[in-house]
Amino acid sequence: MSITWESTNPVPLADLVERTAAVAADVRAGLYDVRADADERWHVRLYRDDCVDLWLISWTTEQGTQLHDHGGSGGAFTVVTGTLQESVWASGSRRLVDNDRNAGDTIGFGEHYVHDVRNVHEQTAVSVHAYSPPLDQMNFYDVERDEAGRRHLTRIAHLWTDDPEAELPDDVVPREQRSAS
User: Fold this and answer.
1) H/E element holding 48?
2) Can you tell me the distance from the alpha carbon of 124 to that of 146, in angstroms, rounded to the nearest whole number?
3) How far, in Å, CA of 54 to CA of 77, rounded?
4) Which parts of the chain have pLDDT scores under 50?
5) pLDDT value at position 172?
6) Which of 37, 59, 83, 124 maximizes the CB count within 10 A of its CB?
7) Which of 134, 133, 89, 128 lies closest to 105 in space, CA to CA?
8) Predicted pLDDT of residue 160
């Protein structure tokens, strides 16, 4: 299957939403090979040009991301199969809001969106993601409290990467893992 995309940089959010939904329908129709790996999230880039990149990702039980942004890129994702839990940083209320994203759901987001995504269900989930401009960096965060007890984001890592599935550096330990030790 050949993907082409004619647009400007950055691609309008509505176009990213439309394209991830269309490619998700193609995935459901069997036009793309999807794999699942219980040891690490499987992902493949389907398309990249100067304006956008497009990814296909599978998530087995308990696979997920660390809280992150997309380094100034906006984007969209569509759940192809299964259910993903998305935790979104709501800056106004200074908290994480959990949402179940079910098969067929499409989420569009701007350049300042901070979230994590994980599969907390038994069924493998599959999703299609698009970023514009193409992903080239990501910031990873923890939610901490200041002296007054207000929650805020603390950046724990910055990576230059074109891979939305990039791992945190080995020397960075997410807060929930630090407190469990």
Assistant:
1) strand 42-48
2) 37
3) 9
4) 175, 178-179, 181
5) 56
6) 59
7) 128
8) 85
